[in-house]
Structure formats: structure tokens, C-alpha cells
Specification:
With 113 residues, this protein is an all-alpha fold. The protein is built from six helices and no strands.
């Protein structure tokens, strides 16, 4: 299950960089959960061709992430915001410490951008 989520996130960030043909097949496999045989029949290509194309797309998307780190930065920013919200709800933390923590987190967000 985790692999499917990872594929979906990578596609959300970098899918537009794939060709229309690659996008269609990848979406059918990952989002619509069609079998290789179903996709092959629909596209008029072999089952092995579908398998190879999906594997190639995964590799392309992972390469983009390895070079650009957009998903990694997004996750870091999301975690910082989650932590800020957690701090805002914490009644036991003093204002000075709260300001210091928020400053650290916001500096991290700015650095990630």
C-alpha cells in the first residue's frame, strides 16, 4: 500500500513532465487500479509493454525527486506547520519559548522554499 501512495505523490508532483501516453497508462495503473492486461487491451499494446512503461515512469518520477527534492521539501514544510499548530495548542509552553520555537520552524520553512 505504501508504494502506491508514494507513486501517487510522485505523480502529483512530476506527472505533468511525462508524455500524455505515459500519463494515461500510469494513471490507469496507479489511480484506476487497472490490471496490466486491461491497460494493454485498451491501449493496443502488449502486457509486457505496459509493465515496462510503468516501470520506466516510476524510474523517471524517482529521478525527478532525486534531483529536485520537491516532495521532500513539501513533507518538511508540512511537518513544520503541523508542529506550529501543535505548539499553538500547547497551554504549558511559555510565550518566550513559543516564539523561539515558531521562529526556528519558520526559518526552516523559508530555507526549504
Amino acid at each position: 500500500m505504501e508504494k502506491i501512495v508514494e507513486q501517487g505523490i510522485l505523480y502529483d508532483f512530476y506527472g505533468e513532465l511525462l508524455t500524455e501516453h505515459q500519463q494515461k497508462i500510469y494513471e490507469d495503473a496507479v489511480y484506476h487500479d487497472l490490471s496490466l492486461s486491461e491497460i494493454a487491451e485498451e491501449q493496443g499494446i502488449s502486457r509486457q509493454g505496459v509493465h515496462d512503461l510503468i516501470k520506466r515512469c516510476n524510474h523517471i518520477l524517482e529521478d525527478y525527486e532525486n534531483k529536485l527534492h520537491l516532495v521532500e521539501r513539501f513533507n518538511e514544510i508540512r511537518e513544520s506547520i503541523r508542529r506550529m499548530n501543535e505548539l499553538a495548542e500547547d497551554k504549558s509552553i511559555g510565550q518566550g519559548q513559543l516564539r523561539e520555537e515558531i521562529k526556528k520552524l519558520s526559518d526552516g520553512i523559508l530555507k526549504a522554499l
